[in-house]
Amino acid sequence: MIQLINRLISFVSEMKEDRKEIILDTAERLFSENGFDGASTRAIANEAGVNMAMLNYYFGSKEGLYKAVFERKFSGFHQTLINLNEENISSWDKLHKYIDLYVERVTTQSCFQRLMQHEISFQQRSGVGGFIVEYMNKNLNEIRKVLQEGINNGSFREIDIDLTISTIFGTKYYLVHLSGIASALFGKDLDNAEVLNQEIKPRLKKHLLELLDSYLKK
After folding, report:
1. Does the global pTM surpass 0.90?
2. Helix, strand, coil shares of the chain as percentages rounded to 5?
3. Is the pLDDT assigned to residue 147 strictly greater than 60?
């Protein structure tokens, strides 16, 4: 009987977690498509197949749900970077893996990236913009560790780490957040997901890796 009760509790817990993930998936898509103001909690609840009471139970408010969407994205990626830094591989291999993960992330989530940048730029909701910046800095510190490790063990030459990180992220910013200007430069529509993933993504990976290899080598 105790085992049956425990399995039942586990089943209910898994169902709740699955429902929560469905709400977050739906909210992420609608916030990315319509922005914070354009995506109503009622529309999110309807598309997620839950009632408003359940949505409010999990997240408390629209802003709570909005923040949870960002937190899920950032915390998962942050843990991935921590795991990468703990791998028993060379600093070069860590850097190459980081670039691969980073480019995959920003090109497959371009709508979310724009939503994030909009929030940082306009600081419309108290606490959300600061929360995003805080998590971004945590992720930046992981790439900082890779670069510093490479300098310390002699794999990389002495460099300006801050500007190196700015170069990596500045390239992404130009392609994703200034896509209209970048599209004119490339002669391609960078708002087109197929163009971004099939043409721009491999070029971006190649460019950043070659740029960093040539810059970091002694």
Report:
1. no
2. 85, 0, 15
3. yes
